[in-house]
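Translate structure to sequence.
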């Protein structure tokens, strides 16, 4: 009876389940970027509202950082989805270390600005 499907033909194959797992991990990473950006935005709004003289500048900088995080997270999600779907890994070192460095430098500048304006 060669026309009958194998008993476990309806079960997902290893490749299909691995792709689903990768898609779900990509989505979790995007949601983490979204959550972090919203937390930075909330911190920026609180700094602008309650921060005194330096609070408005701190709030503006944190808002820009939050928007950059949202844009970067969305771009990373789309790139990850395309990579998983096509199965072709792009060459390159990635931009995450660059973004992390920029956020670190902006944070130090923000701290310096707030401390200078507080005196």
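Result:
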């Amino acid at each position: 009876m060669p026309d009958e499907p194998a008993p476990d033909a309806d079960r997902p194959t290893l490749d299909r389940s691995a792709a689903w797992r990768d898609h779900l991990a990509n989505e979790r990473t995007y949601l983490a970027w979204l959550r972090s950006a919203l937390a930075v935005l909330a911190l920026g709004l609180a700094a602008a509202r309650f921060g005194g003289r330096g609070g408005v500048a701190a709030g503006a900088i944190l808002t820009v950082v939050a928007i950059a995080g949202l844009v970067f997270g969305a771009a990373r999600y789309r790139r990850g989805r395309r990579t998983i779907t096509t199965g072709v890994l792009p060459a390159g070192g990635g931009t995450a270390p660059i973004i992390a460095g920029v956020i670190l430098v902006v944070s130090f500048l923000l701290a310096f600005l707030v401390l200078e304006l507080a005196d």
